[in-house]
Specification:
Elements lengths: L4 H10 L6 H22 L30 H5 L19
C-alpha cells in the first residue's frame, strides 16, 4: 500500500489539519516510511510469541497522597515585598 495525495488529504481532514505543496509531499513521504517499517516488521516470525500488554512486569509504586503543611504562614510571608500581618499585599488588578 502506498500513501497517495488523496490519503494525505483524508487524514488531514480527519485531524483538522491542512497540508499544501512541499509540506504535503513531506508528510506523504513520512507516512510511506512508516508503512515500509510496518511491512518490515511483518516479515518477522512471531509464531508462539505472546503479545505484550506492558513493556515490563514492574508495577508502579506510588507514594500515599498525604497532605503535608511544611510552610508556616510566617515563613511564607517572611520574604514578601509587601505584606500585612496575615496576607500578601498585591496591586489591585480588578477595577470597579
Amino acid at each position: 500500500m502506498q500513501i497517495t495525495d488523496e490519503t494525505v488529504d483524508k487524514i488531514a481532514e480527519l485531524a483538522k489539519l491542512k497540508f499544501e505543496g512541499e509540506k504535503k509531499q513531506e508528510i506523504k513521504k513520512d507516512l510511506n516510511k512508516v508503512l515500509d517499517f510496518v511491512e518490515k516488521i511483518n516479515e518477522l516470525d512471531t509464531e508462539g510469541i505472546e503479545p505484550l500488554i506492558h513493556i515490563s512486569d514492574e508495577i508502579n509504586v506510588l507514594r500515599a497522597d498525604v497532605s503535608e503543611n511544611n510552610t508556616t504562614q510566617q515563613e511564607a510571608l517572611k520574604n514578601a515585598p509587601k505584606k500585612d500581618n496575615y496576607y500578601f499585599k498585591i496591586p489591585k488588578v480588578i477595577q470597579d
